[in-house]
Give the backbone structure.
Amino acid sequence: MIDALWMSNLLAWVAIVALMLVGFALARQVGVLSERLKPVGALVIDAGPAVGSVAPVFELFDLAQRAVRIGGIDRAGVGTLLFFVSPTCPICKTLLPLLPSVVANEPRAYRVVLASDGDVREHAAFHRNAVARAMGADTAYVLSQELGRTYQIGKLPYAVLLDEHGVVRAKGLVNTREHVESLFEAREAGIASIQAYAAGKRGAAEAA
């Protein structure tokens, strides 16, 4: 009787230890999958002015006929988040109210310039009904086919981060707030993109 009780206790402890080992293995696997599947920042498309290059200078006018200079040295030391949008882009509308807070949380000074092309009346209505409510009526909004062609914009929303010297610091497709923030993180880290950095880490880990 005592031997049977002792044996049952032993088996119970063996089962508990086995379950603990299985749980540890599962937790480790979940951590690995989480690392692989976590957001890797804005999707960089290898087109247009390269990260690290000096951006071309554009002298434009916004919808309110105010002069807007994109690129070149900003004497006030203010960088530019150039954000390409469209009135028919639902993700663009979702991100608009988030842009001011993202920029405000950065240690460096930035301004936001919205860019697109097409019918002026359509964009004026979009600015009045969506942009002004989300970001303020004084938000710069420029229309320029040449600007879009230069940066080879194919999908939206797309953002380009220029520093105060007019150098392209980061760029890519942005579908979430985290994607937008990753552009600023890439600049502060001195890398082309969070996406490329994560890919490099995975490659180094696999090589090891």
